[in-house]
Amino acid sequence: MSYHREDAGAPPSLFPDYGATRTRAPLHPPLRVPQTRTETTGPAGWDRLMGSALADLTTQHAAMPQGQRIIVTGRVLDEDGRAVPDTVLEIWQANAAGRYIHGKDQWDAPHDPNFTGAGRVVTDAEGRYRFVTIRPGAYPWGNHRNAWRPAHIHLSLLGPAFATRLVTQLYFPDDPLIEIDPIANAVPMPYRQRLVARFDMDVTEPNWALGYRFDVVLKGREQTPFEEDDHDH
Amino acid sequence: MTIDVADRRPGPRQDNQDPALFGQTPSQTVGPFFHYGLPWKGGADLVGQSDMGARPELFPEAHYVLNLSAPTGTPQGRVIEIVGRVLDGDGTPVPDAMLEIWQADVAGRYHGETGSDPHFVGFGRAATAEDGGYRFRTILPGSIGTDHAPHIAVSIFARGVIKRLATRLYFAGLEAGDATLSRVPAERRATLVATAARDDIWSLDFVLQGERETVFFDL
To answer: Where is this region: Disordered (chain A) (predicted)?
Structure first.
């Protein structure tokens, strides 16, 4: 048993427009080796590992955070369309003004004492997840002249196997900053669209929160075993 | 004109729900500011209840919403530490990396497999310190089957790392006969083999780029 390799939508490791890759991206191509039990197994028992779930980021402190309340929901699937249950989905993000609670974020936007921007949820038997948060703001960064990151939510997924581990970002539809963002642009078109959530009236709740739908697709299991001598592709 | 949301015409699909686009979600970097959202106190201690692993000094205590993990008992096996640094292509320590490890128990079984140690999950997470250093407390894994020497799978995440870097850590003197390591060009194998720094302390640096670049795997 093994998992598929990365498909055509995968970004390169070295993408010089994203400056930090220039000294941090490996220069050797990654070595292709057969997947063993190390790669086809993965951690379970997420609550024992990390403690309780924190699916509502707007109720972690004394009062409501500033900004627009949103619901983000969707499914975690594999590339064959099968639900991936019991997947830990961790989230971290800036506040409505575009500032992280992190001590090294020096952007001159206000902190929000009622918003940490960290959460954790686990997918159900159908692969569904749902969390409530605040729509994050855009913020400037030092990558290039007049660089601004589009609004985004970071997502970390611990799928069924070490081979399916994924860290990614969710972007919002109709954000003009996506086209100038080298991190998003490292993903070739049209695959970049896989990172854009969809506004959804069926997720939106009257008088309470706007809703977005975002499905995350992990690698699927291969139908045929990996050939041992097929390592030079 | 009346507006009825039930009659609305949705805009074009742009995400992974579009059958024409459906496929693996691409990776994106963790960025520089993940330390409050991902590492948790105790995440780097796979055998005890210390608070190794996170860097709570990087955000206010009031915002520390993540919990200590709760081990259910003492795992079997020899307790070891693995330590080292993460370095970039200039040889500069990377103070904003995160490492994850995944390993078998003392009998070479992964958590969830039949007969595996119920007190050992085998997964850990650690942020690097200002000097690029990382540290895990775990057990020495057993050999896995007959052709895989004791090893620990490692993932590296950091600002500038768009795609998770997957590698392995082997133990000097115990790595002979490993089927995966034997596929690594001989002159680069040392980048995957930890050396015994002191009793039960194993040391290995991960070099993201350059002459001593760690071997990373295409998974």
So the answer is: 1-46
Active site residue A129: no
Q: What is the pTM of this model?
A: 0.94
Domain residues for A117?
A: 72-227
pLDDT digits (tens, 9 = 90+) for B121-175: 999 999 999 999 999 999 999 999 999 999 999 999 999 999 999 999 999 999 9
Pairing type for strands A147-149 and B193-198 reads: unpaired
- Specify the DSSP class assigned to residue B149: -
Does a cis peptide bond (omega within 30 degrees of 0) precede residue A225?
A: no
Residue A214 structure tokens: 């975002």
Active-site residue A154, yes or no?
yes
**Of A24, A31, A118, Cβ closest to residue B65:** A118
A18 carries an active-site annotation: no
The residue from A75, A152, A171, A192 that is catalytic is A152
Is A170 part of a structural domain of the chain? Answer: yes
Set out the domains of chain B in order of their start, with CATH numbers: 34-56+77-207 (2.60.130.10)
| Mean pLDDT in order along chain A per 10 residues (233 residues) | 93 98 98 97 76 84 97 96 94 97 96 94 94 98 97 96 97 94 96 94 96 96 61 41
- Amino acid identity of residue A135, one-letter, is R
